[in-house]
Amino acid sequence: MARRYDHLGDVEIFLSVTDHGSLTAAAVALRTTASVVSRALTRLEQRLGSQLLRRTTRSLSLTDAGRLYLDQTRAAFGLIDEAERTILGDAGQVAGRVRLSVPTTYAHYRLPQQLAAFSRQYPLVQLELNIANRNVDLVAEGFDLAIRLGELPDSSLVGRKLEDAPMCLLASPAYLARAGTPTSLDDLAQHRCIGFVMPSTGRVAPWLFQDGAEQREWSAPAAAIEVSGDVLGVVTLAAEGLGVCQSYEFIARERLERGELVELLPQLAGRSRAFSLIYAPHRRLSAAARALIDVLGSA
Fold it and tell me: Between the chain's N and C termini, which has fewer beta carbons within 10 Å?
């Protein structure tokens, strides 16, 4: 009897191309050549009698048929992965791969210790991290989990709050010696402020303060420096004496202890921003993903 599923290698290559965004990137990930990847896609499209990908020298996009095939084959491969993980789990081992997207702040200052503890407990689990300040599409981009800033998202996603991270206002001693120390928000308006442009809005994020019982959002009349892409840049620039910034206390802690930064307006401190772990509710989580959720959620 002829094998019914001898084309699954071509399907796996198709999934890799959609995950990595190009034939070349998929070839690198699969340790093969772009021509091999291209031939596999051609064979698969011929088998199905339908075009799955629109390919040009500069871009790659899914057709409607390709999008449907992607969703269903990814789900099918997920079931195979889960079956294997279940067998491994029955033998007392959790194995497999977890794809996690995380913002730079959390990736550099919170996640390393947590992942070290996770890897010691689950040494057979392979972790794939995407570190970027953008909200990935969990389903379309094939992520199991994501850590996001802000309150829990809409009901299309499931979330678990990891922490409320306190904010603080910062400047370097050199800057304060040159420009003076603000003692109120009115004073602050006269200083060089370093703002971060939120990728979700394209606008400088307001600074958060607690004025007695009142929660206040404050925006500089005109930010002297606007940083986009990497929020850690605002702290680096402030430490070099370029102005005042607001950031998370966990990012600034070591610089504060070393005296490289000084906390300003402590009487207005007390606000925080939430970090949450999210996943798609309709996707069946693997044992490895569930284990990672438990470790991150208990940190």
Answer: N
Q: Which residues contact 202 (CB under 8 A, 6 or more apart)?
A: none
Q: Are residues 106 and 147 in the same domain?
A: yes
Is 83 among the domain residues? no
Average pLDDT by consecutive 10-residue portion of the chain (299 residues)? 74 87 83 87 91 83 90 82 63 79 92 93 91 78 84 66 93 97 94 90 91 91 85 94 96 95 96 89 77 86
Same structural domain, 133 and 177: yes
Distances (CA, A) of 280 to 78, 187, 277: 14, 45, 11
pTM beyond 0.70: the answer is no
Closest listed residue to residue 185, CA positions, set 269, 263, 265, 271: 265
Complete DSSP assignment for 150-217: SS---TTSEEEEEEEEEEEEEE-HHHHHHH----SHHHHTTS-BEEEB-TTTSSBPPEEEEETTEEEE
Structural domain of 13: 8-75
- Residue 215 domain-assigned (yes or no): yes
Q: Does 122 map to a domain?
A: yes
